[in-house]
Design brief:
282 residues; alpha/beta; Spore Coat Polysaccharide Biosynthesis Protein SpsA, Chain A; 9-stranded mixed β-sheet; 8 helices
């Protein structure tokens, strides 16, 4: 695994990077080291009780405290609304993500004609970089004047809280959305912690399903695929087969199998929560 190391002779990229955190001292330095090629880096922290903020400040990131009031905007949109950002182009990076040198170069060479760009991330599962199987893909790089995070009916749902859930920012007006070729790394160092977090996410997703609260994404194809997948009776098995067989996760050996199985278990939990919500109370 390689992290991006900035060539000091190359101008920094005029993009405001935002990393939202809470108790991320184990990962924040690694994340920020790979972001030094950007002109502005913000770490927006939610009352960490560890050294996250101090470490971010040592890395010369700008820091801001965030306290959620239980309403919209949630954390990422709050950043867009309230931070004194130097640039209209923003790049949301999580503390468990690492920007690769290839991705850094691709962003530096962009013409920024689109309103935003999807960025893929390949998983690093318990120390093993997965080159196949499912890859995350999110609209993380965009122009804040042309896109925003939608308001959805989830404030009383368990499992997600202050951060926007598994949905993308949407266009404020008609525009083009691009896809970057290069990838980030999504680090899953603690598998048990990942599973615990996804148990919460499963409860939230089931609540979103019950309310049909999902926002309409910018891509007709993505909307269609997601609707079909959420209606499948055996989503867990389908998720496993997609990652392990269709996307070639078997080529990553035992790590590819373990990751595909974990993804299948996640969607099985969502389905179980769906059934529990649909069951009439006694």
């Amino acid at each position: 695994m390689r992290c991006a190391v900035r060539d000091k002779s190359v101008p920094k990229i005029p993009v405001s990077v935002i990393v939202v955190t809470r108790n991320e001292e184990a990962r924040i330095v690694r994340c920020l080291q790979a972001l030094q090629g950007f002109s502005e880096i913000w770490v927006v922290d939610s009352a960490s009780t560890d050294n996250t903020v101090a470490l971010a400040q040592k890395m010369n990131a700008k820091t801001r405290h965030f306290m959620w009031d239980g309403r919209y905007p949630k954390k990422r949109q709050w950043c867009l609304d309230h931070l004194p950002l130097a640039y209209d182009w923003v790049f949301f990076v999580d503390a468990d993500e690492i920007v690769t040198p290839d991705l850094l170069r691709e962003i530096a060479a962009l013409d920024y004609t689109a309103a935003g760009y999807f960025v893929r991330a390949r998983y690093v599962w318990a120390g093993r970089e997965l080159h196949h199987g499912l890859k995350n893909n999110k609209l993380a790089l965009f122009n804040r004047k042309r896109m925003a995070f939608p308001v959805v009916n989830d404030l009383d749902l368990p499992g997600m809280g202050e951060v926007e859930g598994h949905y993308q920012p949407v266009l404020k007006q008609a525009g083009k959305i691009g896809q970057l070729r290069s990838e980030m790394l999504h680090m899953i160092d603690d598998v048990k912690q990942w599973q615990t977090r996804h148990e919460r996410y499963a409860r939230w997703e089931a609540g979103m399903n019950a309310r049909s609260a999902w926002p309409t994404e910018n891509s007709i194809f993505r909307n269609l695929i997601k609707k079909i997948f959420r209606a499948l009776p055996m989503r867990g098995a389908a998720a496993f087969a997609h990652s392990y067989f269709i996307r070639g996760g078997w080529r990553d050996g035992r790590a590819g199998f373990d990751f595909a199985r974990a993804r299948g278990a996640y969607y099985s939990r969502i389905a179980a929560n769906d059934k529990a919500r649909a069951r009439p109370s006694v």
